[in-house]
Amino acid sequence: MWDTNPQEFIVHYGISPGLAKRFQCTAEHVEARRDGGKDVAPNIVAACLFCNTTRHKAKHPVDAAEHASLVRSRLAKGRWHPPQIEAAFSKRPGPPV
């Protein structure tokens, strides 16, 4: 993920600014505010923009633990990111995203 400037991320992985946007670091509420979650440190984790919005746009949003399990499962199968992202990550050394 990137926080304030995507350029280094874009160059490192050789991807377009549009694709890099999905990896912008956001604050994700473990317990959603609409469900009574508070803006306090124990209730906020870092999440890429794509994961954050995907979780909340679902027809039936799941809790944080279920969503994390879904993401891990799909990542293991190579089915979370678009193919061009998977290819870019596999060609470049760096921390897992």
Shape: globular
- Uncertain parts: none
Number of helices: 5
**Which strand order spans the largest sheet, edge to edge or round the barrel?**
1-2
Strand residue percentage: 5-15%
Helical fraction equals 40-55%
- Largest sheet report: 2 strands, antiparallel
Oligomer status: single chain
Span from first to last CA?
6 Å
Tally of DSSP β-strands: 2
- How would you spell out the order of helices and strands? HHEEHHH
Query: Structural class, judged by helices and strands?
Result: mainly alpha
Report Rg.
14 Å
Account of the protein in words:
44% of the residues lie in helices and 10% in strands. With 97 residues, it is mostly helical. A two-stranded antiparallel ribbon has the order 1-2. The radius of gyration is 14 Å and the shape is globular. The mean pLDDT is 85.
Summarize the structure.
The chain is 44% helix and 10% strand.
Question: Can you lay out the helices and strands and say which pair or pack?
Answer:
Layout: H1 7-13, H2 17-21, E1 25-29, E2 44-48, H3 49-57, H4 64-76, H5 83-91
Antiparallel strand pairs: 1-2
Identify the notable features of this structure and list them briefly:
mainly alpha, 5 helices, 97 residues, two-stranded antiparallel ribbon
